[in-house]
């Protein structure tokens, strides 16, 4: 069995351990449930739609779901993205996961984590973990949209963000994204977010969050 890379591999190998498994390649070259044209997307009638990211930043995901109202199982999951091979493969796999075996129930689908997707892909390079988050967030937005349309607002899962650096308005989500993008130390995260440059009092909390997200996504040190 191939040893899973940890965040340390990024530092010690300079990110050279970038590899794609056969499963990732399969889903990149033959993505499942992809709406390939704008015409297809316009004609597709969905029960819930989720959009995350921005094409201006290079990463954007749009997801459509159809739900059986009686069983609350996801019957179809379609998507489009501006993203890299890892984002395409991750979302392709996610769309399969939520529709196989009769469809996944909404409550269970809301519990899917990036690690679950990566496990089904066998692995992803450490610096590409953030790509699996894109589809995960789009799915959550699509399910929330379904809840809104079916007047079940009380079931909407809200994704709040806590401001850590009040001077620069850097949130815990910004730190999480930085860690997913390969920043494994406070210095790395600071380079990406500028956190703690002016407000030194936030540094201990930031360091604690970095350790938390590092362990969450890459395992214990």
Largest sheet, if any? 3 strands, antiparallel
**What global shape is seen?**
globular
Count of extended strands? 5
The CATH top-level class label of the largest domain: Alpha Beta
Mean pLDDT: 85
Considering DSSP H and I runs of 4 or more, what fraction of the residues is helical?
A: 40-55%
Biggest sheet: strands side by side, in what order? 1-2-3
**Helix- and strand-based class?**
alpha+beta
The total of helices stands at 10
What low-confidence regions span 5 or more consecutive residues with pLDDT below 50?
1-17
CATH fold node name of the largest domain? Sufe protein. Chain: A
Number of domains: 2
CATH architecture of the largest domain: Alpha-Beta Complex
Distance between the termini: 20 Å
Strand content: 5-15%
> Helix and strand succession?
HHHEEEHHHHEEHHH
Radius of gyration based on Cα positions:
18 Å
Structural notes for this entry:
The protein is α+β, with helices and mostly antiparallel strands and 221 residues long. The chain is built from ten helices and five strands. A three-stranded antiparallel sheet has the order 1-2-3. A two-stranded antiparallel sheet has the order 4-5. The longest helix is centred in the middle third of the chain and has 21 residues, at 129-149. 38% of the residues are buried. Mean pLDDT is 85; it is low at 1-17.
Quick overview:
By secondary structure, the protein is α+β, with helices and mostly antiparallel strands.
């Amino acid at each position: 069995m191939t040893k899973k890379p940890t965040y340390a591999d990024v530092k010690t190998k300079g990110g050279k351990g970038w590899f794609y498994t056969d499963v990732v390649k399969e889903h990149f070259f033959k993505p499942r449930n992809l709406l390939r044209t704008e015409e297809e997307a316009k004609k597709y009638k969905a029960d819930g739609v989720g959009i995350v990211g921005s094409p201006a930043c290079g990463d954007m995901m749009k997801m459509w779901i159809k739900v059986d109202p009686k069983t609350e199982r996801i019957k179809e999951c379609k998507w489009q993205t501006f993203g890299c091979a890892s984002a395409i493969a991750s979302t392709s796999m996610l769309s399969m996961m939520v529709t196989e075996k009769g469809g996944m129930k909404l409550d269970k689908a809301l519990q899917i984590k990036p690690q679950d997707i990566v496990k089904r892909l066998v692995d992803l390079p450490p610096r590409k973990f953030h790509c699996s988050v894109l589809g995960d967030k789009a799915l959550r937005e699509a399910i929330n949209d379904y809840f809104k349309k079916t007047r079940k607002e009380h079931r909407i899962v809200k994704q709040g963000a806590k401001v850590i650096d009040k001077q620069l308005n850097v949130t815990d989500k910004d730190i999480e994204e930085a860690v997913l993008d390969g920043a494994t130390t406070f210095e790395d995260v600071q380079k990406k977010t500028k956190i703690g440059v002016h407000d030194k009092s936030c540094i201990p909390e930031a360091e604690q969050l970095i350790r938390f997200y590092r362990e969450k996504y890459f395992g214990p040190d």
